[in-house]
Amino acid sequence: MVAQDKVFAGSIPYMYERYFVPLIFEPYARDLATRVALADPHRVLETAAGTGVLTRHLARRLPSQTRLVATDLNEPMLAVAAAKLHDDRIEWRHADALALPFADVITQALAKMFPLDPPRFLARTPHGYHDVEAIEQHVTAAGFSSVSIESVDDVSRADSPTDPAVAYCQGSPLCNEIEPERLVEATHVAATALAERFGTGAVEGKIRAHVVTAVR
């Protein structure tokens, strides 16, 4: 991961929460919160909490005595999360936690717009980390055992091609790779490419998440 991939600042956290969360993260937050609640944990550590979509679902499902520490590398993201959820069980902490169709179309469209230096964030982490065998090897090497990986398929939906274009171009660190004065133009280029591929009305595409369970 290059340094700028870690920067979710400025307007990015707000765009992320408004556009990215419903586009991709909401269904998996519900799924993961249900899985965690079944374990009836006393303490939960959430890494890469972002703007808190999973945290909110965990707060609804976990017992009143369960304590949750939600961490993220970016304090601006946590600020948005904390503003949306007030719960004494939750501690917000700044910490480094050390095959999406929309992402593919947008990456290709922006590569044509910036041929000499194409924005590549969507081809790197987090969307580039999907090799199940590699993930299992990394988890095992980190000292975990009983590794189980389940692939969960869902559908990403948006009211128009503009929503995913804004989500990716302005709600992720891809924004940091686009010249500020051309951000609106880049978003339009992405929206146009999505419209050509998926239509001008409501759009949808398949999404997949790998749910990794392990013991340490």
TrEMBL record:
The keyword Membrane does not apply. InterPro entries: Methyltransf_25, SAM-dependent_MTases_sf. Pfam families: Methyltransf_25. Transmembrane segments: none annotated. Keywords: Methyltransferase, Transferase. Gene3D superfamilies: Vaccinia Virus protein VP39 (3.40.50.150). One of its GO terms (biological process) is methylation. The keyword Methyltransferase applies. Residues 44-104 form the Methyltransferase domain. GO terms for molecular function: methyltransferase activity. It comes from the Bacteria. This is Methyltransferase domain-containing protein. It comes from Antrihabitans cavernicola. The lineage of its organism: Bacteria, Bacillati, Actinomycetota, Actinomycetes, Mycobacteriales.
